[in-house]
Inverse folding.
């Protein structure tokens, strides 16, 4: 299937520290790509590069064929594209953060309607109607007038998902969307994401929820020390626990539920 | 003290209120710009912002007012007294407001700005809709305090020929030889204006959630 977002020979350094090296990755249309790996392996940095919140040091990212942030010329040079161009390409991408990043001075409805009003220039009435519909989809219609501080973490993250979806992106990026939630609240967020995947949304998800990755993703990317060590279908990746780095990783992160699921998964 | 004196003082109070309100609002707007400049990524812009703040905080308001009143005409720009008064107060208070807002701006989590960027909001919209309200809510006590300082410091604009509340009171006191009731009345007017300003601050606080 066609790549919605393509990463080619991507490298990222912070000073002398090479955090990502020679990353080649295709986020395919209509698929869920889960990026897993130990802490510090560069998962967040990779996802942030895919949104151009970090500028890659090397390589190229294209979104539906359009270069994001840098253009590689015929002679192989990288050219920084203007911010207006970055914004145009980014319109295809929605992002959900580990810390939710809801604006504290706006209600749930205000958070979701803000970009519809300020960016899409919709009249208030229409923006709020659309925002309301998005909140209803994540099951929070009756919380629309609450401020973020009055919502649980799981509810806040669902508002953040609704906020991103309101702009109708074609690709959704998630950076550990459940990692700052209490265990009993992760389910409601994962359910919304499952629903989204079922509806055919193209998604790239950084997660430690191996159970979710094993059951929802079509494509698993195992990142270790800034490189892609293994990738493929969940069956093909998680069926290689003999791989020393993967074994070590799974031992650390896998939960009982996921272990049962994996044993049941056809190899 | 006759009704006529109260009326004259009220006119002075109206001038004080008008000059102060315009200067406070203008100064706050300018302060936001100076503050963003002092936090900008570009080193030159940052230096310009810092220079502005240190200049206007480092010299007396009285000197600034006199400089605007006498320097601008010398440079061929004719400024009416009222404009010089408002401009002087606004330029000065902007430096203090920029310093007040600074901590607020620094406390805005970068993720909140990134979320707005990902939704396609332009930098100036992010400033007005996200960063400023959050910064203002956090620094409101200091910002309101500076507004009250400006209301009181507005008595200095009489040096550029604006007859505001304090000057009206002085004139009345000398012409009537009854300074005590007149200055007491002027003080009462200042108190009323301060209450109104505090009320405006309350409205702002509710607007910021
Ligand atoms: N802005 C930055 N400046 C310097 N170093 C950074 C920066 N961001 C990340 N790093 C470094 O890059 C490496 C990868 O970080 P990253 O956050 O991408 O890892 P991660 O896989 O997301 O980890 P975690 O699972 O803990 O979220 C780490 O060593 C981190 O210290
Ligand atoms: Mg991370």
């Amino acid at each position: 299937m066609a790549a919605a977002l393509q990463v080619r020979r991507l490298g990222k350094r912070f000073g002398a520290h090479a955090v990502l090296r020679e990353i080649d990755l295709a986020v395919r249309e209509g698929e869920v790509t889960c990026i897993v790996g130990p802490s510090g392996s560069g998962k967040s940095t990779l996802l942030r590069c895919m949104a151009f919140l970090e500028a890659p040091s090397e390589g190229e990212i294209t979104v539906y064929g359009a270069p994001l942030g840098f253009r590689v010329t015929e002679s192989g040079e990288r050219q920084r594209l203007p911010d207006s161009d970055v914004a145009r390409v980014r319109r295809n991408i929605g992002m959900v953060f580990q810390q939710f990043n809801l604006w504290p001075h706006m209600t749930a409805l205000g958070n979701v309607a803000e970009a519809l009003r300020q960016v899409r220039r919709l009249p208030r009435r229409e923006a709020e109607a659309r925002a309301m519909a998005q909140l209803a989809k994540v099951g929070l219609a009756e919380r629309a007038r609450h401020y973020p501080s009055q919502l649980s973490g799981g509810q806040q993250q669902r508002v953040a998902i609704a906020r991103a979806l309101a702009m109708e992106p074609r690709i959704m990026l998630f950076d550990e969307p459940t990692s700052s939630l209490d265990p009993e609240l992760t389910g409601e967020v994962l359910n919304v994401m499952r629903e989204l995947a079922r509806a055919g949304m193209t998604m790239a998800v950084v997660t430690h929820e191996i159970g979710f990755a094993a059951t929802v993703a079509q494509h698993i990317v195992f990142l270790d020390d800034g490189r892609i060590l293994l990738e493929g279908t969940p069956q093909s990746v998680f069926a290689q626990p003999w791989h020393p780095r993967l074994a070590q990783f799974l031992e650390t992160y896998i939960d009982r539920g996921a272990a049962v699921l994996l044993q049941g998964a056809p190899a | 003290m006759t009704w006529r004196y109260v009326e004259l003082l009220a006119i002075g109070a109206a001038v004080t209120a008008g000059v102060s309100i315009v200067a406070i609002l203008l100064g706050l707007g300018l302060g936001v710009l100076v503050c963003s400049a002092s936090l900008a990524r570009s080193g030159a812009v940052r230096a310009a912002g810092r220079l502005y703040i240190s200049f206007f905080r480092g010299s007396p308001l009285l000197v600034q007012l006199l400089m605007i009143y006498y320097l601008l005409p010398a440079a061929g720009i004719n400024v009416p007294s009222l404009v010089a008064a408002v401009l002087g107060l606004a330029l000065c208070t902007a430096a203090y407001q920029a310093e007040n807002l600074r901590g607020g701006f620094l406390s805005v989590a970068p993720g909140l700005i990134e979320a707005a960027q990902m939704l396609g909001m332009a930098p100036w919209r992010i400033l007005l809709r996200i960063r400023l309200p959050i910064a203002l809510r956090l620094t409101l006590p200091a910002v309101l305090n500076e507004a009250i300082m400006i209301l009181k410091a507005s008595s200095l604009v009489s040096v550029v020929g604006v007859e505001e509340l304090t000057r009206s009171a002085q004139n009345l006191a000398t012409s009537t030889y009854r300074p005590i009731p007149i200055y007491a009345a002027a003080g009462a007017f200042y108190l009323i204006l301060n209450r109104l300003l505090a009320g405006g601050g309350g409205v702002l606080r509710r607007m910021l959630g």
